[in-house]
């Protein structure tokens, strides 16, 4: 008898929240995924039409901004390293904040709605104090694979069907944007957690005898326990999903505002670097 070597979390909801008149987000309740979401520490499926956040610091993790292809407008991204660019629909900026960086983002054109995802991905202790790094992939740099079953897969990071995404963070992470019209199979790498989020539509997910049904703005996470395992996704008509997978650092986590470290001493050191200007400066526009 074959023993199941994959375990599922409960299903989590991304509940809508509004911040002013120009920003709303479906914020995923990662706690409901009972630890299976690591290294993901924040997940906002957002829409924005105007400036919302002032320049702010990050340290100890990566802040990832991805614009969906149906976004009307682009997202301007600035940081204290000197970058000033526009993330166009279908593109990504991976800000590996690590030792610390100051950045801000807002719609490139006021009033043009931006539809995207902001993801916070934790870094392990050994990489939290690396120099900050910003990686940009334009939409035309993102490879797209159409499977024999008709799934369309955009590969932002990691590997699918032996094709590598254009962004290579310091720690392995897979980010796939998948449009389904028929069944699709994803093999969860050994020892990794995978988070599957439904942007639109509905689907049934299964592995071995386990089966779950998900609709828009719901997510489930799974962990491969001892070997790579296949997860099968069957859409009800069409579905648009994100598949995100990475390794849980399995280390203590301490969070204070925009800093994710391993302990209070790490948080205090990050805060001191920020107030002393060691993360650089970024004047508001």
UniProtKB/TrEMBL annotation:
Give residue ranges for domain Pirin N-terminal: 50-121
InterPro entries per the record? Answer: Pirin, Pirin_C_dom, Pirin_N_dom, RmlC-like_jellyroll, RmlC_Cupin_sf
- Domain of life, per UniProt, equals Bacteria
Annotated membrane-spanning segments are none
Give the residues the record marks as binding Fe cation.
Answer: 56, 58, 103, 105
**Which keywords does this chain's UniProt record carry?**
Iron, Metal-binding
Residue ranges occupied by any Pirin C-terminal domain in the UniProt entry: 176-280
Taken from the record, one Pfam family name reads Pirin
The Gene Ontology terms for molecular function here are: metal ion binding
**Cofactors required:** Fe cation
The record describes how the cofactor is bound as:
Binds 1 Fe cation per subunit.
Q: Which PANTHER family match?
A: PIRIN (PTHR13903:SF8), PIRIN-RELATED (PTHR13903)
* Family indicated by similarity: Belongs to the pirin family.
Q: What is this protein called?
A: Pirin family protein
Q: Where does this protein come from, organism-wise?
A: Pseudomonas reinekei
């Amino acid at each position: 008898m074959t023993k199941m070597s994959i375990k599922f979390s409960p299903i989590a909801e991304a509940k809508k929240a509004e911040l002013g008149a120009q920003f709303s987000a479906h914020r995923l309740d990662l706690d409901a995924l009972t630890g299976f979401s690591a290294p993901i520490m924040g997940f906002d499926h957002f829409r924005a039409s105007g400036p919302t956040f002032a320049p702010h610091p990050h340290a100890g993790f990566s802040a990832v901004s991805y614009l969906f292809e149906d976004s009307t407008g682009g997202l301007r991204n600035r940081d204290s390293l000197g970058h000033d660019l526009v993330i166009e629909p279908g593109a990504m900026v991976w800000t590996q904040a690590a030792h610390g960086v100051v950045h801000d983002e807002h719609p490139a054109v006021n009033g043009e709605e931006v539809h995207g995802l902001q993801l916070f991905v934790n870094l392990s202790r050994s990489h939290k104090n690396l120099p900050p790094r910003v990686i940009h992939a334009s939409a035309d740099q993102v490879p797209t694979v159409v499977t024999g079953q008709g799934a369309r897969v955009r590969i932002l990071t990691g590997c699918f069907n032996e094709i590598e995404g254009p962004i290579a963070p310091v720690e392995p992470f897979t980010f796939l944007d998948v449009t389904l019209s028929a069944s699709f199979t994803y093999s969860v790498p050994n020892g990794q957690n995978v988070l599957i989020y439904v942007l639109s539509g509905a689907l049934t997910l299964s592995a071995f005898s386990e089966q779950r049904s998900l609709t828009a703005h719901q997510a489930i996470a799974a962990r491969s326990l001892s070997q790579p395992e296949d997860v099968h996704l069957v859409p009800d008509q069409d579905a648009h999903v994100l598949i995100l997978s990475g390794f849980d650092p399995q280390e203590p986590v301490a969070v204070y505002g925009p800093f994710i470290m391993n302990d209070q001493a790490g948080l205090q050191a990050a805060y001191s670097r920020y107030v002393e200007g060691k993360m650089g400066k970024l004047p508001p526009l």
